[in-house]
Amino acid sequence: MITHAGHRRVPARGARTSGERRADRAARHAFRSRRVRIGTLAALMLTAASVIAAIDVLSALVGSSLHVVAYRELLDVRWDGWEVRAISGGLVLVGLVFLLAGLLPGRSRVVPLHGRVPDVVMGVSRRGLCRAIAAAAEDATGVARVRRVRLRPRRVTVVAETPVRNPDGLEDGVAEAVRACLERIRPLRVRTVKVRMRHKEA
């Protein structure tokens, strides 16, 4: 069962103040993924290449080049060989990975929330939001235990257990409880809710 959930109360056009809109943008910017790991890897690779080039240049200036990179041997390389093509393809692939990492949004550990003033940004951890959703779902009628809550950018999936042999209709109550929870917490992104009920003997 899938139902629309999230911040349901859609304000009329212009109802939100400019300060609230700036607060939302500030929260989205503050809690976006920084791509720390891949950024660190790119920085290390560029640093290593810069150090090697600096060693060669400085050693050549003092009259005894260390030849960290064998430039003369590169002149004898067959540039149409498979080794060169493989290395070039690998470098292109690495470059595309870095480019996509810079353009595409990453997965943040914090979910930004609606705010009122730009100077105060609010967020909740993904784990904390999942726990709140699970607690709300467990309070719904007929739910014995929540087995899993999966939080995605546009959907929340809740898998719950029930002692009821015919759980038809229970999904609506669970979805309503999750929707009410999301409306209280007020995350920036609106999400749909998918509920799956599993029968389990009491």
Beginning-to-end CA distance, first to last residue: 23 Å
Number of strands: 6
Shape: elongated
| Domain count | 2
Output the number of helix runs: 6
CATH class of the largest domain: Alpha Beta
State the order of secondary-structure elements, H for helix, E for strand. Answer: EHHHHEEHEEHE
Q: So, CATH architecture of the largest domain?
A: 2-Layer Sandwich
Domain DUF6286: 93-198
Biased composition (Basic and acidic residues): 18-27
Pfam family, one: DUF6286
Protein name: DUF6286 domain-containing protein
Description:
The chain has 2 domains: 89 residues, Alpha-Beta Plaits (2-Layer Sandwich); 68 residues, no CATH class. With 202 residues, it is α+β, with helices and mostly antiparallel strands. It has a 4-stranded mixed sheet, with helices on one face. The N terminus is likely disordered. It has 6 helices and 6 strands. α5 packs across α6. The relative contact order is 0.19. This is DUF6286 domain-containing protein. Keywords: Membrane, Transmembrane, Transmembrane helix. InterPro entries: DUF6286 (IPR046253). It holds the Pfam family DUF6286.
